[in-house]
Amino acid sequence: MRSRLLAALVSVLLAVSACGAPPPAPGKIKLGFSAWPGWMPWQVAKERGFFKINGVDVDLRYFDSYTDSLTALSTGAIDANSQTLNDTIASASSGGRQKIVLVNDTSTGNDQIIARDGITRVADLKGKKVAVEPGTVDHYLLLLALNRAKLHQGDVQLVSTLTDSAAAAFAAGHVDAVGAFAPHTSIALSRPGSGPVTSSADFPTSIPDLLVARADLARSRPDLVQRLVNTWFETLAWIERNPDEAIEIMARGAGVATVAYRAYQPGTTFLTKQENQSFFGTKSLQQRAGQVADFMVDAGLIPARPSLDGLFDDQFVNAL
Question: Coiled coil located at which positions (predicted)?
Fold first, then answer.
């Protein structure tokens, strides 16, 4: 089977060199994403036709609830999803068979713990009500911050709710602090006097955002996954050349004003092709995953460290 796939890929390359464009590929990829700035380029790819240009038929599915996208991938309702490293490890601990095929970005400030007026540091959260979606990226950020402040989860009153509801509850004054990612941070910060007490900028490289595919798709149809990865980098190149038009598309997709979306830009750092290759090739991603897994076990987010063997698939970024 592998030799047939290699032969098929060679045929594709020959066809591309002969006619200047990839031939259409049979099959459709159901791709999930949520309102995180690092994943909104997928909306640009759809509206500008980059999926079609790369010969891949994509059913792009937007999830209001990020958690629902995780469930959709783990149950096979979608073929690939945009999700964080810690959430991918959580899926692996539950028996999920997935492959990390691309690092979209690292969070450099757009994940935040936001507190009310009078709370200016993480240590001040002791005994306070903190709304967060359990088990997801900003719960992880909260635990990282508490750990650095020599506090534990039990030192705060954790209010479990979905991220959008958590941001709204904080804005309405029902809790003292909230863990949220952009664009939900804009809702939280509408509360007068509020501000972030910590963010992902304080934990560099701790929150990589990924393209994760079902393991059986990466194995049986690597050509489709490759076209998806190619599309991502072509889209980023177009965004760099057309920043104003791109921001309009992404802001509209995220449901925020363009001025608000521009403010998110420093908080998300996109990785280049070369940085992706280095991230995989130097084992930096694998090492980070091991550290994240150990922390998640210690924090009680997962029962035991899962095997990470086979989770990382660098063939697609190396083929760019």
Answer: none
